[in-house]
Specification:
- The longest helix has 13 residues.
- It is elongated, with a radius of gyration of 18 Å.
- The strands form three sheets. It has a two-stranded antiparallel sheet with strand order 1-4. Strands 2-3 form a two-stranded antiparallel ribbon.
- The protein has six helices and six strands.
- The protein starts with a strand and ends in a 5-residue tail after the last helix.
């Protein structure tokens, strides 16, 4: 579960809090499904460890893969990374395996969840739009994830 909570002058604004029914467990499940297709037999705890140690949100969405990456994007992608499992085995994770699972936070339909606000970005925008017009700019300029 993910919540968007607007804060202003140290106080939360309860009227604008929004809940999105997707969170870390959905990311873990999505990553486990992707890794199982690569013939890795892993427990959810192993996948959770990989997600926390190696996972990240990419600045380049899989939805923009059709366009060629810029030179800045090419240099900003981390190289494949090796993760050592508790049993001593080592798995090399590609950039896609490390970042694609987080797309479920931005497209909840990937987790089979249909919400009125498809993703945390839409929920965040909706939350800020519920705030007083005078403080929206400050709230937009101080987003913490």
């Amino acid at each position: 579960m993910t919540y968007t909570v607007p804060m202003y002058d140290g106080y939360s604004l309860p009227h604008a809090i929004h809940k999105v029914p997707v969170g870390g467990m959905h990311v873990t499940s999505h990553m486990a499904a992707a890794l199982s297709s690569s013939h890795h037999n892993l427990s959810l705890e192993d996948v959770k460890g990989m997600k926390e140690a190696q996972g990240y949100v990419s600045s380049r969405s899989p939805y923009t893969v059709a366009s060629p990456p810029t030179s800045i994007e090419l240099t900003s992608f981390p190289p494949p990374s090796s993760y050592e499992l508790p049993d001593g085995r080592s798995i090399t994770l590609s950039d896609t395996e490390r970042s694609a699972s987080y797309e479920v936070l931005f497209d909840t339909t990937l987790a089979g969840i249909d919400t009125s606000y498809n993703g945390i970005h839409a929920a965040l925008h909706h939350t800020i739009m519920k705030c007083n017009l005078d403080i929206r700019k400050d709230v937009y300029n101080n987003i913490v994830l």
